[in-house]
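worker-3 :: picked Peptidase
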Amino acid sequence: MQHTRTYPIGTPGAPWGDAERAAWRAAQVRQRSHADDVVARIDALRDRFDVQAYGSLDHGDRSYPLLAIRSRDWNPALPVAVVTGGVHGYETSGVLGALEFAEQAGEGYAGRINLLVVPCVSPWGYEHVQRWNADAIDPNRSFRDNSPAPESAALVGLLAPLRGAVLVHVDLHETTDTDESEFRPALAARDGRPFEPGGIPDGFYLVDDSVRPQPAFQQAIIEAVARVTHIAPADENGEMIGAKVVAPGVIEYPLAELGLCAGITGARYVTTTEVYPDSPQTTPAECNAAQVASIVAALDYALAHR
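worker-3 :: tokens ->
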């Protein structure tokens, strides 16, 4: 059944052009500071890690550095672990979870694995609490060669030399109530399609790679996170967000085919995390802790099963 909902930008049934994208961008309001919330915390880690600037984004009078946190004593003989957050800038626990992992647990992996942590892939999206970038493009459908999203293209370029060396990649995400109230209606309007309401899983879950699934790896993460916060149940159809639940708290997508961030490293062990901070059963701090727990569990499992 098709549903209609009027979105304030565009004409129902007609995909957006340049004028609609410009109108959408003009409506976005800067709500927080990437420099204060992210860059300052990365700078505070410079005495413990190397910090690499792998590009910058310019939007009007603002310039955003793209920063990665790297193990100080990088050893080419060791495997690599990649952690990415803030691919969707509004997903706060992805950004804060990546930072908290580096601050709290990163040094514990020295000499065991090379860490590359990118806490905020989409700084404009972070500041404007937006899923898309400033051009109304979803970075997490754009991780491919000749990407139309500069955020995605920069990360692809950063990680390209490491392809084949990455053992594990954890991409941190969350779903909020605004997915249903704003972002999905905006997507339907942008693409000239009718909006079809969906549901939001209440709890933590993972997205595995359907092409190269690692069920034991995913389950190790679920077990660790279950000690921190609740795991999302399947719906009445045995699904979450339209995908079959293949194990408690786990669904699968063809990551590389869809241009998703977790599909770009070619790692043996990959996962995308999802938390639901608007759940009455959790708190933002608990969601951040769940992201940290997922990273630690992923790295520990990968190191034990190389």
